[in-house]
Amino acid sequence: MRLDPMAAAAGFRLVVHDVLGSTNSEALTQSRRGEKGPLWVVAREQTAGRGRRGREWVSAPGNLYATLFLFDPAPAESAPQLAFVAGLAVYDAIVDCARDLNEGLALKWPNDVLYANRKLAGILIESEMAAGKLAIAIGIGVNCVRHPAQTSFPATDLGEAGKKVSPESLLYALSHAMMRRLDQWHGGAGFASIRIDWLTCASGVGREITARLAGRDLSGHFEGLDEAGRLVLRLADGTLQTITAGDIFPVVERATVVSLLQRPRQKGQTD
Q1: How far, CA to CA in Å, does 147 sit from each of 63, 104, 121, 181?
Q2: H or E stretch including 1?
Q3: I need a surface site. Which of 8, 115, 138, 242 has the fewest CB within 10 A?
């Protein structure tokens, strides 16, 4: 595996492992040892991969499992915006490697990439304080050749979409796309343009959705994003609700989602 030469020239470095528990965990471990980044940590297989909200991320060989570690990239209040930066970079990289897929690609709030309304890639951002500064791990998983079955939101992979894309070629494209999107974001100063680009690629804007929050569901019209990147939902009574974190589903698929959630979990199954 290798990085795009422009990314390498800009100071990005790469460490590749055959097997890791978690690329995010390894990146944060390196932070505690004094790593300052920017550093890509990649594993061909993960044994303890995880997604948002502590979900397991099945990580057999053949897919891309990568984390970009950044040290003090922006003020803490701007750090959540990196989910949108990373989402756009993954979207760009997939289009670069499989150009005719762009018609079916979309970004799902807050940090997934979809193809044909199925989850193709996920992003997990974790952070901690190191020497009084924010250390951030941007974990990225892209389904190149396999995907889990019976998940709460349907999944897919590039192979199923008819595209043969290796983790190596995807990382090469992603390293360039991420460098470019980080430059555009400019430590939060450029989030307005990131927000516009993200909405251009977004799934569900202008439609009825259900947002699953901690302990409750909210349904309404997906109005867009506010200036901080929070989802804006117009409820049935006309009021606007901003949502910082949650999972969203199209209202038309709600019955299917409930049915899937009621099925017993099988060994190796993940969200």
Answers
A1: 9, 17, 10, 27
A2: none
A3: 242
pTM of the complete model = 0.87
CA distances from 125 to 103, 121, 137, 140, 188 (A): 27, 14, 6, 9, 16
165-175 pLDDT per residue, tens? 999 999 999 99
Predicted local distance difference test score (pLDDT) of residue 99: 86
As a whole number of Å, the end-to-end CA separation of the chain is 28
Highest mean pLDDT among 130-134, 181-185, 250-254: 181-185
Radius of gyration, alpha carbons of the chain: 18
Write the burial class of residue 17 (CB in 10 Å: 0-12 exposed, 13-18 middle, 19+ buried): middle
Give the domains, in start order, of the chain with CATH numbers. 5-201 (3.30.930.10), 208-262 (2.30.30.100)
Q: Are strands 13-20 and 39-46 parallel, antiparallel or unpaired?
A: parallel
**Tens digit of pLDDT for each residue in 245-271?**
888 888 754 333 333 333 333 333 333
